[in-house]
Design a protein that fits this description.
single chain, alpha+beta, 89 residues, flat, 2 helices
């Protein structure tokens, strides 16, 4: 499939696709007191107000990746391999 993006660009980058999540926040902007939006991109979170002030927030701990657990279970069934049992998170 052909795309108009240069090599190495997928179209999923923040500059092209924008945030993954956006919702009004109850927290006011710490710089000007205006209402804010909470935005996320991958594991990063921040607040943005209408004056373009941004304030970083702590990343969310989303817990274990369910896709990884599924992939490991499939590999165990296919290969009879217990190599993941000793891994520590």
């Amino acid at each position: 499939m052909s795309s108009n993006y240069p090599p190495g660009v997928t179209g999923n980058e923040y500059a092209i696709a924008g945030p993954d999540y956006e919702e009004e926040s109850d927290l006011p902007c710490p710089k000007c007191g205006k209402p804010t939006l909470e935005q996320r991109y991958r594991h990063d979170r921040w607040l943005v107000c209408e004056n373009d002030h941004t304030t970083g927030l702590e990343p969310l701990d989303e817990g274990p990746d369910p896709d990884r657990a599924h992939d490991e279970a499939v590999e165990r069934r296919l290969f009879g391999d217990d190599r993941y049992d000793d891994w520590e998170e």
